């Protein structure tokens, strides 16, 4: 499309502030509308629709054991009483939840892309939604699934199949975090002012998430799961993951694929696994456990716990809500864990169940999508949006009362190098945290510093994408566009906090709210779990109480990989499984990023 075509094309400027919302487009539209209410309902009033936005999201959860799809309707509202442009989720309604299917595999190392695609297709058909109607979403590969050889290509295929804004995320710590929110542990912790440990047992891994007063304190993961070995109707091993073979050997069996085993032998393995989990939960794990079971660093000290909750597929068995046997260790492992809890092997109260098998999928909805503020600056929507897979380059600098443009440029240059990127080689989304007065002097210095740090980007006339949490997008955008060096289009959105993830998708402009859906994701695949911030086991030793502690506490991280979180949750009760949060997140990723976070999504599965 030529620049002249773009200029002549019908654009959002033709009906700003909600005017002329009943109109037609010639050809493709470059934006979307909040067409979510019909008739003469008073809620159709322009002001209401500027402050209230409805999104549809999809979550596709591909785990070691099961695959599921969840569709949700999300109502976001601008926090008008705070004179803010920020939107927060006030209600989430599940539109459709697919049955949970066993994740299909072609072999030990390959997932069946065709079969997975059929599962997703069927879910869309049953939901009655078309991919074009999806505003946001995520494909999440978790546990052992993300280690399969073709996990990255499958995530990409499912993302394209699922809609323009669907994305892929994965990782032990993130999955532990998602489970904390999806299971209801975070909400219970916030409501009851309690310190709760959530134990999410999936098909390949167990994720541990510690939450206090709604604040995520620490996460960890161990290689214990219900589907690390599978038998057929004749009790012949048809699947035996390396971790499953290790667990069997610890229980006294040197099994290989194709061996015939007995139900009692499988139960013996499950009993060993339950004992290992007890050691993990009571922090009496051995150095052998530290080397071979932990996928991350252990948490140094749980502290005084008010209770524990279980989630994940095996959690259904722990709470005795599922009785079926799927030919794996899930039922045996869950029952063995419950037996030890009943025997008080873990001297902490077992709290009532929340979400179990759908925990990760529902939790993802809390962390996948944000909606920009309504003070955006988008010089040419047709050229700038929608946009997928923009790598986030954070401006790791606290903005003081007096902003130094040279300091800004230097920090930006350093951030490019930290992310192994060459400035100007690709489009990126620069994220920053805004503090202090929005004076012209400060904002101009910020704009000049950013432009000074992007010489090649400006030379190649690459579009500028800037994301900030403060309400400064409109003015900052004008400062960029008025600079004679800027020959490209400019997008600046505010009310969005980017943290701890690597990529974002930007959706179409929503009218008349003038907002942009932002999907946050991390494209990390086939990672070696043992390289995920795990320290040397020799740093740990056992005290007289039998508990393991680390020698060098300076190396201790609350997440085992240098991430600490500070969440201030304001829960708005909704009518679905989940809950809404207005999050204040402080994330230390080697830089100061203590930010106001208002987000929440619709479905836990893959929103």
The order of strands across the largest sheet is 14-22-20-16-17-18-19-15
Strand content: 15-25%
Rg computed from alpha carbons, rounded to a whole number of angstroms: 25 Å
Could you say which overall geometry the principal axes of the C-alpha atoms support? globular
How is the main sheet built?
8 strands, mixed
Distance between the termini: 32 Å
The level of helicity is 25-40%
Low-confidence stretches: 1-44, 523-533, 553-607
Count of DSSP H/I helices: 17
**Mean model confidence by pLDDT:** 76
Structural class: alpha/beta
Main attributes?
607 residues; alpha/beta; 6-stranded mixed beta sheet; 17 helices; 26 strands; 22% strand; disordered N terminus
Task: Describe what you observe in this structure.
The chain has 607 residues and is an alpha/beta fold. An eight-stranded mixed β-sheet has the order 14-22-20-16-17-18-19-15. Strands 2, 3, 4, 5, 6 and 7 form a six-stranded mixed β-sheet that branches. A four-stranded mixed β-sheet has the order 10-9-8-13. It is 28% helix and 22% strand.
